[in-house]
Specification:
The structure is a homodimer of 327-residue chains.
Chain A lengths: L3 H28 L19 H11 L12 H4 L46 H5 L1 H4 L8 H9 L2 H10 L9 H12 L8 H6 L8 H12 L16 E3 L11 H4 L7 E3 L21 H13 L5 H12 L15
Antiparallel strand pairs in A: 1-2
């Protein structure tokens, strides 16, 4: 009967809508575990984010003359060409000395609530001066660094503009505040996951969606959550071959032995190699090891592939930074 | 008489025009010694300049993994933030080793007809591989560098695109050709001198114009001429404290003892410190020393000031380079 056809079509449409609704509800539950990267991380009350500080911070980030050799800057290890890290196992600094730990990326680091692998500083302001003074990194006292910056008229102008209420603005605290301000702008929005979360269902492949579900179901999301996919907390992890005592070095608390801060997973595909000593080069192996150590689970090959595919969905737009002309 | 006024005005105008004409003729004679920077330097017949080579060359220029430490790239010493040089006396390379000579800027280096302080290579293709292999610079054999590049799918694609007729495109010659191609784009047009030469008479200050005249009259222009203000030739220069034998090391010819290639004066104000060992930090002192050594002339203070002012008129627009994302 001709009259039945519209009804059949309507019924089919309803069935499809119902099925789609069920699938959406299913995926929506998983999506609830994630959040798109905000445009900016939280800004501390005592370091408002201003264009003047960002500009000055950018200059300081690229400034090698606050290192003893005159050739090492923040950008040497946190290299913008290499995911704002260095893609070597352990950081190489002053006179070619090799440190104990892998360089973490600066990208999205404003979203982290603990800085350094051992969380010995709570924020970017606290982190910024460490590598300048470290003997195996830039190897310069802050006193010397301040004296060098003071030699340049252009730095005197920029510090005065960035800290207008400070009668003597070239000082370590302001160096830290300016660098931290610049770093808070180094975020990577629009990853496939971010686009997926705001409704672009084509932004992730089916395999990446499978990886996302497994990431939740297997329990990875217990530690890797929040906008930067880290809880900024410390978890014991015994990396084969590593003797690094991790968080214990900071707290002296036995419970912190071999504990490291959960790293962000944003841009994990372009911030290899992995773990505190950078000893694992491949993401596939890193995910496998995490499953074994943290979840007591040996993922199947297809599961590993899906999880790695999902990791690739966490690579966002790199900040477009023009190298500043220094004085 | 009222009727005389127009004539007086006309006469005055004519006098002014005459005076201006005379002055212009005068300045025009000086201007003949200089030429605005062309958009591009000469391109060698065997290395055509293509967008693919420029892009690949940029990646290689910023690539630290063709160094033994994994942290030193061309851009370490030829730092875009520091006038594409390093602003330290002598280059610091692998394991903090300090070389014998000051890092020359890459800016406008395509206009030079001899590369390195001693001119041991005639062109940028010849220059490009030297620092990779030098033990005190990047300290990597070309064989190893090629092997490392070959590991990356993205490099394999870029080399194939840049050298489509080459069945095995990742090789030392192509690395050199790509880097040289990128470097030929690193030019600095629109300096005050360039704008002055094309008719913008306000582009240089009166003092800079005085400096330009003195630069010609005193004879500086005998060696510092052509688009990059260098004859690309070798001249004996005994820098106090330097034992560097210069060009003699290359030729073994006694006439070349202590001879160095005339450096470009373009961007000289932002490519301090000066001379083969970078021992002179101030432009004022550098000009004074040049006057004494090369021209047997002790410039007066006001002459030095004018010459230094003219040097500042040689700073052009820096290339706008976005740091490439490396694989």
């Amino acid at each position: 009967m001709p009259t039945s056809r519209p009804r059949t079509i309507l019924a089919s449409a309803a069935a499809i809508a119902l099925a789609a609704g069920a699938a959406s509800a299913d995926i929506a539950e998983y999506m609830d575990f994630f959040e798109p990267l905000p445009a900016l991380p939280p800004i501390p009350a005592d370091n408002s984010l201003t264009p003047e500080k960002i500009e000055l911070g950018k200059m300081l980030f690229f400034e090698p003359r606050i290192s003893a050799s005159g050739v090492i800057s923040c950008a040497t290890c946190h290299n913008p060409a290499l995911g704002w890290a260095d893609r070597i196992p352990r950081a190489t600094g002053h006179d070619g000395q090799v440190g104990e730990r892998n360089t973490p990326t600066v990208l999205n680091s404003g979203f982290l609530e603990a800085q350094f692998w051992d969380g010995r500083e709570p924020d970017l302001e606290g982190q910024a001066l460490g590598p300048i003074e470290a003997e195996i990194e830039m190897n310069m006292t802050l006193e010397e660094a301040i004296a060098r910056l003071n030699e340049f008229e252009i730095y005197r102008e920029h510090f005065a503009a960035a800290f207008p209420d400070d009668p003597d603005p070239i000082n370590p605290q302001n160096v830290a505040h300016a660098i931290a301000s610049f770093e808070r702008t180094l975020n990577t929005p629009n990853s496939p996951l971010d686009r997926f979360l705001v409704g672009d269902v084509q932004a992730m492949t089916d395999q990446q969606v499978e990886g996302m579900k497994l990431f939740v179901d297997a329990g990875c999301v217990a530690c890797h959550n929040g906008p930067a996919l880290t809880d900024s907390n410390f978890h014991r992890f015994e990396l084969p071959g590593s003797t690094d005592e991790g968080r214990f070095v900071v707290t002296g608390d036995e419970a912190d032995m071999f504990a490291f801060r959960t790293p962000t997973l944003r841009n994990v595909a372009v911030t290899y190699p992995y773990f505190n000593n950078g000893s694992v080069a491949e993401l596939h192996e890193a995910v496998q090891l995490m499953g074994q150590q943290m979840l007591g689970q040996d993922f199947e090959e297809d599961e590993l592939d899906a999880l790695v595919a999902f990791m690739h969905a966490l690579t966002g737009d790199m900040p477009k930074i023009e190298i500043p002309a220094l004085p």
